[in-house]
Amino acid sequence: MTEQQESVNEAVTEKNKAKLVVLCAGGTGGHFFPAKALSEDLISRGFHVKFFGDTRGRKYKDQLSEEISYHEIASAAMKSGIMGKLRGIFMLLLGMLQSLIHYIAHRPAVVVGFGGYPSFPSVMMAQILFIPTIIHEQNAVVGRANRQLSRGAKKIALSLPDIDGLSEKAKQRAIVTGNPVRQDIADLYTQPYTPSDEDSEFNLYVFAGSQGARSFSQIVPEAIVALPDELKARLNITQQALEEDMMKVIDAYDKAKIKAEIKPFFSDVKEILSKAHLVIARGGASTVAEITTAGRPAIFVPYPHHKDHQQKMNALSIADHHGGWVLEEGTEFTAENLERRLEMLMNDPEK
């Protein structure tokens, strides 16, 4: 770096020192980790960052930089029934009040929301106070919170170019930025993918996001146990499972003499992804972004209960460009279909 470039960087950092950016994200990994990725970049540029999340985010806040303060803001989904809606309204108003108190004490230069109901009260209050807001939509279908917030957002950042749910007026303020990924995952972009051959170990990474998936604990072991012995002998499995399902999954692999590590959560995702020959995962936006950034082939099993089928649309955006395969839960995601797909990929990885 030249002395002139260093001087420019120092000037930019000095200019940004007094600027506060508030990031708002829910407690699932799909919302938290893109916000975390942005926070790291902002800190490196000299910004001051506050992180607004919900109670579920406690399990992740230790992963934030020590320079970032984490604040829990009240929020709740609007559930069915009168009491469910009343509780949702009360928590929304409480969250807006908490946000107002923060903004009065420390007025941010900008507030960035990463979707989901936990981001709604803080971003909405910022818009009421005429604080510039940016929303980031990770999915191929705009979520309800972001759809409402898009009306007052100064900019709308999109992970994908083709997205459903934005008005024509909102599209004029939209820009495709991609989905921010953690720096350690981004580092995998330059690491080449080496397929497993018939004489070497085959590393399979199975995970269902921060909330887990019971169907994975049932169907994946059943499919793997049905593989021919010579393929089972090559397998090295890293699988996320709910705590209540762990012993059942461990027992299934132990009986089949398959090497496997089963945990409810893995913190060393970079290391696991770097070695993976195949990933079986949900179709959450952050999951899809990290897998594609790492350049690993994947079998996506989208969460089936979203009304807008956002995970299916995310996964199809990759499968349509030959970056993976989609098996829909309830129809295609069966032990028989998965076993057939695994056998084909292990025998002929070029497919």
Give a summary of the structure in a few sentences.
The protein is an alpha/beta fold and about 350 residues long. Helices cover about 40% and strands about 15% of the residues. Helix 3 crosses helix 4 (about 120-130), helix 8 (about 215-225) runs parallel beside helix 10 and helix 8 (about 215-225) crosses helix 14 (about 335-345).
Describe this structure in words.
- About 3% of the residues have low confidence.
- The protein is α/β, with parallel strands linked by helices.
- Strands 3-2-1-4-5-6-7 form a seven-stranded parallel sheet, sandwiched between helices. A six-stranded parallel sheet has the order 10-9-8-11-12-13, with helices on both faces.
- The longest helix is centred in the first third of the chain and has 24 residues.
- Helix 8 runs parallel beside helix 10.
- The chain has two domains: 178 residues, Rossmann fold (3-Layer(aba) Sandwich); 162 residues, Glycogen Phosphorylase B (Rossmann fold, 3-Layer(aba) Sandwich), CATH 3.40.50.2000.
- It has 14 helices and 13 strands.
- Helices cover 41% and strands 17% of the residues.
Structural class: alpha/beta
Number of helices: 14
- What is the CATH topology of the largest domain? Rossmann fold
Q: Report the end-to-end length measured between terminal Cα atoms.
A: 43 Å
CATH uppermost class of the largest domain: Alpha Beta
> What is the overall shape?
elongated
Using the CA coordinates, give the radius of gyration.
22 Å
Give unreliable regions as ranges.
Answer: 4-13
Quaternary: single chain
Number of self-contained structural domains: 2
Strands of the biggest beta sheet: in what spatial order? 3-2-1-4-5-6-7
